[in-house]
Design goal:
The chain is an alpha+beta fold and 460 residues long. Among the domains are: 119 residues, 2-Layer Sandwich (Uridine Diphospho-n-acetylenolpyruvylglucosamine Reductase, domain 3), CATH 3.30.465.10; 105 residues, Alpha-Beta Plaits, CATH 3.30.70.2190; 81 residues, Alpha-Beta Plaits (2-Layer Sandwich), CATH 3.30.70. Helices cover 35% and strands 20% of the residues. The strands form four sheets. Strands 15-12-14-13-17-18-16 form a seven-stranded antiparallel beta sheet, with helices on both faces. A five-stranded antiparallel beta sheet has the order 5-6-10-8-9. Strands 1-2-4-3 form a four-stranded mixed beta sheet, covered by helices on one side.
C-alpha cells in the first residue's frame, strides 16, 4: 500500500491506532490454523464513525478489508488472503448497557465473552453460548461466526441470543438492525443474515443480546465406555429421552490420554468418555443425573464417576477446554481442526467412520466435541514438512467431510468456512444456492472489498 494511503488511514484513526510494523503485520495476518496472509496495515478503530470512514475509504480505493476480533478463528476467517487492511475491533471493548429489567445488554464488538459474563454474574445472569476460547474470543467474532460451544446443546448458538446489531456496510453506511423486543417479524431478518456471515457482509460494531438467569444448580457426571460408538449411542439415547442436558461432551481415548499427559489430572483408561452436565432446580437435576446414568449403563458404560465437589467439576471442565492444547504432546507440527456435524441419530456411525478413516490413511485423528448436538471435532494431525503425511491428512479430511454430508450433516457446525473449507462448500450447497448467496454478497459489497475470497469456492 502506498505511503499516502497509510497516511490517510492514520488521519482517520490516529497514529497510535495504526501500524505497518513487520512484527504487527505478522501477528495480525494469521489465526490458529495453517493459513497465513500478508497485511499491508493494521488499524484499531475506537468508534463506529472511524469504522465507517475506513470502509468508505477502502470502498473508494478498492482496498480489501479484513475484520478481526481476537483472531481465534479455526478456519482462516480473519486472515488477509490478499494485501490490504486488517481492521481489528479489539479496542472497541466497552459494555455500554446492562438492562436487567429486560434481560438484555449492549456491548461493543471487541468485548470478550468472559468479560461479559463477569459483568453479568453479580446480577445472577449470564449469556450461555461459551466457546472454548471464551477468555479471549470477542462477542463480535462470535456473532460473525454464529459460535456455539459446550452449552449449545441446551441453549443454542449466538444466533439464538442476538436481538440486534449495529453494523457498517462495505460502502461505509452505518445500519442498525433488530429491536429490543423478544420477537419481531417486521421486515427481513437482517440480524439473522449478518450473524454467521463471517465478516463478509458487514463489520459488526455493536451487539444487543439477551441474557438469562444463572441456574440454581449444576451437576456433572462422567461416564466411561469401551468405544466412542458406545458413548455415541448413549448420548443419542439421553437426547431422545428428553433429559435436556446443559452440556454433553465426548472425548475419545487418544484425547483422554493427551489430557492426562498435559495436566496433572489423570483420566481413567477407556475407549471414550462422556461428560454430562444438567442445570436447573436441584431436585430436577438430581433426577436427570440418575436417569442419564441408568441409560449409560444400558448402553454399556464400564465406569461412572461423579465429581464430589464444585472444584472437581471445574477441574473437569478445564480439562475439556484444554483438549486442543493437549494434542501438542503428540509432537505433530500441524493440526486440521474440523467441526463436522451430523444428525444425532448418526453420531455412532460418524464416530466409527472417523476411526476407520484414520486407520485407512495411517494418521492420528483424535476426536472430541459437543456430541449432544452432533457437533464433532476430528483433529487431523500431521507433520508439515512430511509430504506423505500432508497428503494423507488432506485425503483423510476429504473423507471426513464427504462422510458427514453423506450422513445428512454439514461441513461446519460452528467454526465457519473461511479459507480452509472453501473447496468443500459444493459438497453441501447446490450451484443455485451458492449463486443466491453470492448475489447477497454482491448487494452488500458491490466492490468485493470486505473479507473477500472467503466461504465460496470461487470468486467472481
Amino acid at each position: 500500500m502506498l505511503k499516502e494511503r497509510v497516511d490517510e488511514l492514520a488521519a482517520i484513526v490516529g497514529s497510535e491506532n495504526i501500524s505497518a510494523e513487520p512484527l504487527q503485520l505478522e501477528v495480525y495476518s494469521r489465526d490458529p490454523t495453517v493459513i497465513r496472509g500478508t497485511a499491508d496495515v493494521v488499524v484499531w478503530p475506537r468508534s463506529v464513525e472511524a469504522v465507517s470512514k475506513i470502509m468508505n475509504f477502502a470502498n473508494k480505493t478498492k482496498i480489501p478489508v479484513y475484520p478481526r476480533g481476537a483472531g481465534s478463528s479455526l478456519c482462516g476467517g480473519p486472515v488477509p488472503t490478499r494485501r490490504g487492511i486488517v481492521l481489528s475491533l479489539e479496542r472497541m471493548n466497552r459494555i455500554l448497557e446492562v438492562d436487567v429489567d429486560n434481560l438484555q445488554f449492549l456491548a461493543e464488538a471487541g468485548v470478550s465473552i468472559r468479560e461479559i459474563n463477569d459483568r453479568l454474574r453479580p446480577h445472577g445472569l449470564f449469556i450461555p453460548p461459551d466457546p472454548a476460547s471464551e477468555v479471549a474470543c470477542t462477542i463480535g467474532g462470535c456473532v460473525a461466526n454464529n459460535a456455539g460451544g459446550i452449552h449449545a446443546v441446551k441453549y443454542g448458538t449466538f444466533r439464538d441470543w442476538v436481538l440486534g446489531l449495529e453494523v457498517v456496510l462495505p460502502t461505509g453506511e452505518i445500519v442498525s438492525t433488530g429491536t429490543k423486543t423478544r420477537k419481531s417479524v417486521s421486515g427481513y431478518d437482517l440480524t439473522g443474515l449478518i450473524t454467521g456471515s463471517e465478516g463478509t457482509l458487514a463489520v459488526i460494531t455493536k451487539i444487543r443480546a439477551k441474557m438469562t438467569t444463572l441456574p440454581e444448580s449444576q451437576m456433572v457426571t462422567t461416564v466411561y465406555f469401551d468405544s466412542p460408538e458406545d458413548a455415541g449411542r448413549a448420548s443419542f439415547s439421553i437426547m431422545i429421552k428428553g433429559l435436556n442436558p446443559s452440556a454433553m461432551e465426548l472425548l475419545d481415548e487418544t484425547t483422554m490420554g493427551t489430557i492426562s499427559r498435559y495436566l496433572t489430572m489423570r483420566l481413567p483408561q477407556a475407549g471414550a468418555m462422556l461428560i454430562i452436565e444438567f442445570d436447573g432446580h436441584r431436585d430436577d437435576v438430581d433426577k436427570k443425573i440418575a436417569a442419564a446414568e441408568v441409560i449409560c449403563r444400558e448402553e454399556g458404560a464400564v465406569e461412572i464417576k461423579t465429581p464430589a465437589t464444585e472444584k472437581e467439576s471445574l477441574e473437569l471442565w478445564n480439562a475439556r477446554k484444554t483438549a486442543f492444547q493437549s494434542l501438542a504432546v503428540l509432537g505433530k507440527t500441524s493440526i486440521l481442526i474440523e467441526d463436522v456435524t451430523v444428525p444425532i441419530s448418526r453420531i455412532p456411525e460418524m464416530l466409527r467412520r472417523i476411526h476407520e478413516i484414520a486407520q485407512r490413511h495411517g494418521i492420528l485423528v483424535p476426536t472430541f466435541g459437543h456430541v449432544g448436538d452432533g457437533n464433532l471435532h476430528p483433529h487431523v494431525l500431521y507433520d508439515e514438512e512430511n509430504k506423505e503425511e500432508y497428503e494423507k491428512a488432506m485425503a483423510a479430511t476429504d473423507d471426513i467431510f464427504r462422510t458427514a454430508v453423506e450422513l445428512g450433516g454439514t461441513i461446519s457446525g460452528e467454526h465457519g468456512i473461511g479459507v480452509l473449507k472453501r473447496k468443500y462448500f459444493a459438497l453441501e450447497h447446490s450451484q443455485l444456492e451458492t449463486e443466491v448467496m453470492k448475489r447477497i454478497k454482491k448487494l452488500f459489497d458491490p466492490n468485493n472489498i470486505l473479507n473477500p475470497h472467503k466461504i465460496f469456492p470461487e470468486e467472481e
